[in-house]
């Protein structure tokens, strides 16, 4: 079965790119921050970690400064991770670093050779910053109280207190505001600075101080909570220990750092220890809790030859394990990398939000100017109150709450999913999940365990049962079809096999080959019909076999059917419950199989599948998905990721099972279910729906609060500090609401 290249007809990757923030999800797992596909080949790329960049505000600032500079080709932003990628043709990066410095961006070059994604240092406060902030708060409050009790906003003491507050809490904002002004960037820092200066100009000193202080607190809390979302993904990596016990050249055991381990090393894991690297058990027996990888809470038994994953816990026995990947390529590291790389693939909501934000700020600023200018000039109204109203509007002109809420929510959702053993390749699939109307499930290996065995052999005319199994096993020894494995296992040992010449696989039908001068065929009803060797007696036998949900495979020559082999595959334990849950969620379940219709109907009825599509040729599965899409709209497909690649790629969301052990599955699927548990499917749908409703809540809250304040400001009811409070409140509300998903 050749690996099939996934067609790039899928919407996602290209359409979502509005020229900037997009990353491609294919061949992802190689570099920590891969260059986008369309980066010109003659360009070099560097990545900077910019610790004070997490709002689109900064993105715009950097764009204004760097874009158009000589030798700079393109910029890509990953705000969640504070990574700026610069695609350039420069000899020296000095101009870039100076330019970034000039706009107050604290940029550090990221070593792109280092494969291990680094944990961004968290933005915690220094003691000095805490003291300054505290002074600012106390002074602002004192100014407010004094002004209120003395009924004068402009007394020297009030002004002095306000000044202290602004100097201790507001300088960073004012500095950034000044930079924004110099670079003609309309951002929150500029707006806030303007509001503060405006308030001072019209004598509202306590107000100015309060705005400064609240804004500083808001920025802080926002960046701390963003860190939480950010670190949640990285936190997964910490599940694998940094040290590992490795065997040295003379057979002793030494504690070493995981980075020094190479493929083929032997590691020893004691009971109770976490496994540091992926590998294969070479001696010992234990049960291993691999919840961090597969999300399954029950420990899994491991013995010689079984694969174990970095991050899982060895519960009982001592295990010696042969290392199969280095630490940066472990399944766990790949999961983290996939999330980090694909989280920037913008989903529909995020594109809406970004577009909205682009028009929102300038629109509000224009309105504020009109409010400040028109009533006094045109209607002869008093100047100060209208200027004050305009300043309040400036404060609510920042779209930050709205813009940051979406990625926080999406990343929280992606991380929550990863913890449950569901690897989602980007927000768009998490978001599309709620729209799924139908899910197609492959039969063999998906609904069934995929380990069929021969249960009966029916002899026709006077052939021996042993002869039939010998011929069938000899033929099928050349095939890697699951049914072929069953037949080979039931037959004699391979040294007794007959010599097969002119072997040929007949897709969707079976196999053929020549033994002792006779051409034999082994396969399904379709095959013997095509050979014209079927008859009513055989069909009667088929009816019996298929009526008990078994699969009938026939051995035939060009003249006659020689025997029938009945094969049974057990259902997956989780199939019935999962299908029930899917149906309950209002999703139509569809079985796709190459097997015959009766068998499929039997199994489908047992599992509770709504629609059954059987006797499909391999290429029919793709067509079937297209048909389902035109009937139901948004359609998912669950397969093993290997045989089903084209159909999986055609589906709006392609799910692959058992991904922990298979690179192909992780790569081909949009959503990789780490273990073989179908129950992850309804879990995904529920998580997707939860994400969706949080996104909607967040967007409505962010826009709603602003709209209310806009009206209040216009009516002259809202004060400056109330506006900042509302703005801060909105930001915090949406961020915490998004983080809620992490607790799922
Ligand atoms: N190597 C083989 N040996 C015997 N029978 C085969 C072989 N390959 C295919 N067949 C017959 O052809 C049928 C269709 O095979 P195909 O691989 O298309 O689907 P499948 O494996 O049965 O089901 P699913 O589509 O659910 O994976 C099988 O059910 C079987 O009867
Ligand atoms: Zn027939």
Automatic annotation (TrEMBL):
Keywords carried by this UniProt record: ATP-binding, Cell membrane, Hydrolase, Membrane, Metal-binding, Nucleotide-binding, Translocase, Transmembrane, Transmembrane helix
Name this polypeptide is given: P-type Zn(2+) transporter
Residue intervals of the HMA domain: 44-108
Name of the gene this protein is made from: cadA3
Cellular component aspect of the GO annotation: plasma membrane
GO terms assigned for molecular function: ATP binding; ATP hydrolysis activity; cadmium ion transmembrane transporter activity; metal ion binding; P-type zinc transporter activity
EC number: 7.2.2.12
Membrane-spanning segments: 131-148, 154-172, 184-202, 208-226, 359-379, 391-417, 694-714, 720-742
Catalytic activity: Zn(2+)(in) + ATP + H2O = Zn(2+)(out) + ADP + phosphate + H(+)
């Amino acid at each position: 079965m050749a690996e099939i290249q996934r067609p790039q007809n899928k919407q996602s990757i290209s359409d979502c790119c509005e020229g900037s923030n997009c990353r491609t999800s294919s061949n992802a797992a190689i570099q920590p921050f891969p260059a986008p596909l369309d980066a010109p080949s003659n360009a070099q790329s560097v990545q900077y970690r910019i610790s004070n960049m997490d709002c689109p505000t900064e993105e715009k600032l950097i764009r204004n400064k760097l874009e158009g500079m000589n030798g700079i080709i393109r910029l890509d932003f990953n705000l969640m991770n504070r990574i700026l990628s610069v695609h350039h043709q420069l000899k020296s990066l000095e101009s870039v670093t100076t330019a970034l410095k000039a706009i107050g961006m604290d940029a550090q070059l990221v070593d792109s050779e280092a494969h291990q994604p680094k944990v961004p240092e968290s933005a915690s406060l220094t003691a000095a910053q805490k003291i300054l902030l505290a002074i600012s708060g106390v002074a602002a409050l004192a100014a407010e109280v004094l002004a209120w009790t003395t009924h004068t906003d402009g007394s020297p003491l009030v002004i002095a207190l306000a000044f202290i507050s602004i100097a201790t809490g507001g300088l960073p904002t004012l500095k950034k505001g000044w930079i924004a002004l110099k670079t003609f960037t309309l951002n929150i820092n500029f707006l806030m600075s303007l509001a503060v200066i405006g308030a001072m100009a019209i004598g509202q000193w306590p107000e100015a101080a309060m705005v400064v202080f609240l804004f500083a607190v808001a920025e802080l809390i926002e960046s701390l909570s963003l860190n939480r979302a950010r670190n949640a993904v990285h936190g997964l990596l910490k599940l694998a220990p940094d040290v590992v016990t490795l065997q040295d050249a003379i057979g002793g055991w030494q504690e070493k750092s995981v980075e020094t381990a190479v493929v083929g090393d032997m590691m020893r894991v004691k009971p109770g220890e976490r496994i540091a690297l992926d590998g294969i058990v070479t001696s010992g027996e234990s049960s291993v809790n691999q919840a961090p990888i597969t999300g399954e809470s029950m420990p899994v038994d491991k013995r010689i030859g079984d694969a174990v994953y970095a991050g899982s816990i060895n519960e009982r026995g001592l295990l010696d394990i042969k290392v199969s990947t280095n630490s940066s390529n472990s399944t766990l590291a790949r999961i983290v990398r996939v999330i980090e790389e694909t989280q920037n693939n913008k989903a529909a909501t995020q594109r809406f939000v970004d577009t909205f934000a682009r028009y929102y700020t300038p629109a509000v600023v224009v309105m504020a100017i009109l409010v400040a200018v028109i009533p006094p000039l045109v209607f002869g109204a008093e100047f100060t109150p209208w200027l004050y109203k305009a300043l309040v509007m400036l404060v609510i002109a920042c779209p930050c709450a709205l813009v940051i809420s979406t990625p926080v929510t999406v990343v929280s959702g992606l991380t929550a999913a990863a913890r449950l053993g569901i690897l989602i390749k980007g927000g768009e699939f998490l978001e599309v999940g709620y729209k799924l109307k139908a899910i197609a499930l492959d039969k063999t290996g998906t609904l069934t365990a995929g380990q069929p065995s021969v249960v009966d052999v029916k002899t026709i005319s006077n052939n021996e049962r042993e002869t039939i199994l010998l011929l069938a096993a000899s033929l099928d020894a050349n095939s890697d079809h699951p049914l072929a494995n069953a037949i080979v296992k039931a037959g004699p040992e391979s040294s007794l096999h007959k010599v097969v010449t002119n072997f040929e696989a007949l897709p969707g039908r079976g196999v053929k080959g020549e033994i002792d001068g006779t051409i034999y065929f082994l396969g399904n009803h379709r095959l013997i019909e095509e050979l014209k060797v079927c008859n009513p007696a055989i069909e009667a036998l088929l009816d019996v076999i298929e009526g008990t949900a078994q699969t009938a495979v026939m051995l035939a020559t060009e003249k006659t059917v020689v025997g029938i082999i009945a094969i049974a595959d057990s259902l997956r334990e989780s199939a019935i419950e999962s299908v029930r849950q899917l149906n309950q969620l209002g999703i139509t379940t569809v079985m796709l199989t190459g097997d015959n219709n009766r068998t499929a109907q039997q199994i489908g009825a047992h599992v509770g599948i709504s629609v059954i599509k059987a006797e499909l040729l391999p290429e029919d599965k793709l067509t079937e998905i297209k048909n389902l899409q035109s009937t139901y709209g948004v359609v998912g497909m669950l397969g093993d990721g290997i045989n089903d690649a084209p159909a999986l790629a055609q589906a709006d969301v392609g799910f692959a099972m058992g991904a922990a052990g298979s690179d192909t599955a992780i790569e081909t699927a949009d959503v990789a279910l780490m273990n073989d548990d179908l129950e992850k499917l309804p879990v995904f749908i529920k998580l997707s729906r939860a994400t969706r409703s949080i996104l909607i809540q967040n967007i409505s809250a962010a826009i709603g609060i602003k709209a209310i304040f806009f009206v209040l400001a216009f009516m002259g009811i809202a004060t400056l500090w109330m506006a900042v409070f509302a703005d801060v409140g909105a930001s915090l509300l949406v961020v915490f609401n998004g983080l809620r998903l992490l607790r799922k």
